[in-house]
């Protein structure tokens, strides 16, 4: 039987076995192709090589598929290597980071241990007999505790406060100054330290250091003032300091112009007195000194006016304080002048608060306040002051207006109700009652018209004053004259814009 065979490596052979019956004849198929490729191969085999171009085309296509498959395999392997390398790099970075953190932790831990040992050594030097070492240790505490809150607490826990307070008993002024400023820095922003410093007895030791004023003692005095300022910020210390005799010392330091202390020390005195005045029990102690007249008489100094008014705002909250302010000669004109000459919102708000409380509580002094020009100043403040100052000025005007209405009512014997009551019909006195009521109402209207005229005049004067003030602020010529239009506006103004 004829045999047809392809020479291709992947050929399909159709073998006929001679000498066998047709029924026993069999075929063996060997294939490793897809369906389409298999059909093309059968065609080539049947054609017995007559279609070689198809075989070559299939061969080329097969080679292209194999090369493409190899390229895909290489790309996949390359990506896998990249992922593996990326993970390896990230893992290496993570391990390096952990090692660096551990190294930094060890370094930081070692540094903290060294710092703690240094603090222990410093506290130990505070207790030695050598005066030079103690002074150097106090100076070291002052520097270390200046800006580090943690060190302040650590030094206090190590026991630095008692030996520093004990150093105030030494005769050497430089050692005293070093100890005072070290205690001052230990108390900054640390209330437990402030309480501990006072508990050890530093108040009485500082007062013992106060000597007759002299240039050589001014540094010690300023250090004591600074400590009183820091310690008085704690509420639990206010009563202790107030009852210790520190207030007369502070007031004396403020009043004594011959005492050679810096301007900063004077500011510290005012701030310390303000802290102490918050406690109402300290106000009577302050009133025993000449503090109130001094504060009022020095209100013209812009550097201290607001702090002075802050103290007066605390003092006026007590009945004793209000009486003490009212008996000072010229107290009300001075306070009213503050509303007129200062443009500082803080000064205006505090001065108006003092006057508001005085006008509300001291009924007998309202006429004195009116005579001092409080109505004019309050009217101006309701127009030009800050929101808080305007509110307080309105309250002042309300109190003064109520007092005026009360005086008018009392001037008619308080019989408004009887005067205008309905007459009894059929009685002979009906006409008399009507006549009395008419007279009383006419007098009342006349009094009210006088009051309205006065208020209208106040408004006009206030508007004109404000115009002059605006002209001054605008740097216009001094001979500037308001226009006729402005004059007509001020002349036609009414009291409708007033807060009452």
From TrEMBL:
Q: Which InterPro entries match?
A: ARM-like (IPR011989), ARM-type_fold (IPR016024), Armadillo (IPR000225)
The UniProt regions of compositional bias labelled Basic and acidic residues, in chain numbering, are: 58-77
Report the domain of life of the source organism.
Eukaryota
Q: Which UniProt keywords apply?
A: Coiled coil, Repeat
Q: Where is this region: Disordered?
A: 58-83
Please verify whether the record's keywords include Oxidoreductase: no
Residue spans making up a coiled coil are: 102-129
* Signal peptide segment: none
PANTHER family reported in the protein's UniProt record = ARM REPEAT SUPERFAMILY PROTEIN
Protein name from the UniProt record: U-box domain-containing protein 12-like
Provenance organism: Cucurbita maxima (Pumpkin)
As recorded in Swiss-Prot or TrEMBL, the protein's gene is named LOC111496192
């Amino acid at each position: 039987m004829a045999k047809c065979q392809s020479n291709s490596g992947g050929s399909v052979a159709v073998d006929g076995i001679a000498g066998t019956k047709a029924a026993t004849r069999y075929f063996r198929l060997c294939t490793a192709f897809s369906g389409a490729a298999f059909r093309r191969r059968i065609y080539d085999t049947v054609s017995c090589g007559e279609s070689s171009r198809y075989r070559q085309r299939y061969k080329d296509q097969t080679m292209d598929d194999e090369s493409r498959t190899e390229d895909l395999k290489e790309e996949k392997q390359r990506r896998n290597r990249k992922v593996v390398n990326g993970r390896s790099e990230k893992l290496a970075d993570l391990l390096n980071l952990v090692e660096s953190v551990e190294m930094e932790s060890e370094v930081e831990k070692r540094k903290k241990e060294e710092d703690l040992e240094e603090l222990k050594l410093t506290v130990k030097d505070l207790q030695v007999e050598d005066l030079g070492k103690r002074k150097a240790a106090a100076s070291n505490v002052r520097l270390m505790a200046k800006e580090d809150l943690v060190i302040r607490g650590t030094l206090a826990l190590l026991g630095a406060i008692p030996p520093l307070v004990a150093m105030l008993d030494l005769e050497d002024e430089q050692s005293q100054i070093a100890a005072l400023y070290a205690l001052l820095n230990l108390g900054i922003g640390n209330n437990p330290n402030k309480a501990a410093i006072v508990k050890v007895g530093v108040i009485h030791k500082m007062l013992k250091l106060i000597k007759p004023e002299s240039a050589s003692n001014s540094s010690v005095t300023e250090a004591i003032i600074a400590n009183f300022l820091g310690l008085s910020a704690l509420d639990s210390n206010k009563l202790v300091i107030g009852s210790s005799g520190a207030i007369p010392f502070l007031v004396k330091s403020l009043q004594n112009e011959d005492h050679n202390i810096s301007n900063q020390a004077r500011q510290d005195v005012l701030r310390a007195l303000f802290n102490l005045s918050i406690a109402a029990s300290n106000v009577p102690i302050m009133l025993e000194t000449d503090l109130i007249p001094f504060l009022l008489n020095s209100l013209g100094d812009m550097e201290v006016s607001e702090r002075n008014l802050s103290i007066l705002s605390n003092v006026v909250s007590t009945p004793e304080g209000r009486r003490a302010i009212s008996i000072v000669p010229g107290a009300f004109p001075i306070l009213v002048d503050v509303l007129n000459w200062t443009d500082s919102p803080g000064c205006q708000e505090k001065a108006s608060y003092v006057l508001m409380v005085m006008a509300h509580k001291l009924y007998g002094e309202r006429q004195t306040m009116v005579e001092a020009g409080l109505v004019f100043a309050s009217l101006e403040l309701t127009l030009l002051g800050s929101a808080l100052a305007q509110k307080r000025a309105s309250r002042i005007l309300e109190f003064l207006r109520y007092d005026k209405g009360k005086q008018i009512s009392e001037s008619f014997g308080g019989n408004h109700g009887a005067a205008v009551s309905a007459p009894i019909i059929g009685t002979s006195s009906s006409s008399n009652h009507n006549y009395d009521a008419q007279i009383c109402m006419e007098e009342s209207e006349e009094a009210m018209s006088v009051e309205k005229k006065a208020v209208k005049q106040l408004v006009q004067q206030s508007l004109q004053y404000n115009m002059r003030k605006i002209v001054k602020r605008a740097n216009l010529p001094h001979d500037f004259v308001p226009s006729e239009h402005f004059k007509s506006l001020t002349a036609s103004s009414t009291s409708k814009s007033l807060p009452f």
